[in-house]
Amino acid sequence: MKKNILWILALVLPFMGFFSSCSSDEDIIFDHERQQFETRADRILLEFIVPFGTTADEEIYITGPFNGDSTAIGNAAYLLTKAPKSDMKWGIYLDPSTFINGKTLADGFRFYSVSQGKEYTTKGEQAWHTDNPSVGTFTNIWGQRWESYYWSGDEPEIEHDGFVVYVDNQTGWDAITLYMWGDVNNLNGDWPGMAPTGTVKLNGTTWTFFDMGADNSGLSENLIFNNAGGGTQLPDFAFTIDRDIYLRVTESGVEEVEVEPSVKHDGYAVFVLDQTGWDDITLYMWGDVNNLNGDWPGMAVTGEQTVAGNTYKYFDMGADNSGLSENLIFNNAGGGTQHPDFAFTIDRDIYLLVTASGVEEIDPYNFKPSSGSHKIYINNQTGWNALGLYAWGEGLPELFGEWPGLTTYTSETIDGVTYQVFTYEGSGQEYHLILNNAGAGSQVDGPAITTGSDYFFTVTTSEWTAKSVKARR
Prior knowledge:
Blueprint: H1 2-21, E1 44-49, E2 60-63, E3 81-82, E4 89-94, E5 110-113, E6 117-122, E7 125-126, E8 138-142, E9 145-146, H2 147-151, E10 164-170, E11 177-182, E12 198-202, E13 205-211, E14 220-226, E15 237-240, E16 245-250, E17 253-256, E18 269-275, E19 282-287, E20 303-307, E21 310-316, E22 325-331, E23 342-345, E24 350-355, E25 359-361, E26 373-380, E27 388-392, E28 410-414, E29 417-425, E30 430-436, E31 443-450, E32 455-459, E33 464-466
Parallel strand pairs: 1-8, 10-16, 18-24, 26-32
Antiparallel strand pairs: 1-4, 2-5, 3-4, 5-6, 6-7, 6-9, 10-13, 11-14, 12-13, 14-15, 16-17, 18-21, 19-22, 20-21, 22-23, 24-25, 26-29, 27-30, 28-29, 30-31, 32-33
């Protein structure tokens, strides 16, 4: 043992001499601490030393009371820039003259990564910084851990103070605040009201939330959302604080929405609002990888999920397939009907309206099923000289009236095929079709449709077949 100690000392002593010869007047400056951006006389320069696991293509925002907290996410003015010569440094210039509500950096700020979540110090403790440098200065801010380090992408459990108002903020405002009056005026703050408590991701949507306070349960209040006192406000929304509530807030108003339980997907998903009228829908893919997720007719529906009030069938693409460029072919489970290729790079979730006529990408939060007149085209192969089209829906009024339904129709020829055309009004409801010989004793049951689209069918005395045809008007 003594020989080992002497051997270690023999190695260490020369280095001790080296360190003693170094100057002790200056601290050692590591490369990742060195300033990477030029100081500006009219701006505060913050350089963020990012947490372990940050990638070079990260989107990182600074948020806090000074810029509307979570509403700053997506605002280019608060997006950090990676230093050209350092993968550990992201920088941002801030102009104090743009800070809202008299707030400063001393009121707290934090960093948010679009792909990895908020910055945390420990599990359950979000990282808040309170440095308050002046313009013309440079300050290092040390990062801790991203949310994904502790939860691997799952949203952490949040302890709320009383009931919660969740807001899907689609206003486009730079900041949003909530003023309340009613049983108690100025509840949770004088005009323009309280700032958001925080954000949480549920079912693919990032919600801005306001904790109401446990002591305020049961109060009847009028909620006024406004742009942090900037001159724009929405009409009062009456709410009794006796439950959590989910609201979609746009520039034109406030509406309550339902939130389905969160669904965990395998990679990105293709969401389909299915208005084809087909009995089954499958998805075949070819491109960078042919027969991706299954040979013809392709993969079956993974499941169903309600988003913004509409029920979608979804196809999980698989996490290992992210980045592939594919051509999507929707078909009726190999039954002879298919749509033209729809090109898609698997780098995001996508929402599609799929009708008997084709495929269209939609914004799920602004899409509303079409209203007005629509048509059901019947290629009559029954041999019946007179037709009646009857439609029933669970708990719904008969779409075409009592049996035998609609017996008046027009004819239209498309691509050489003559159709009997039945016109109807309405959207967003499910009806089951029955073609009959105008009530003379014969009928053939058809598929369920969702109203709001045109549909094309070939009908024999034994079956209905959906056709992929685009009407010419």
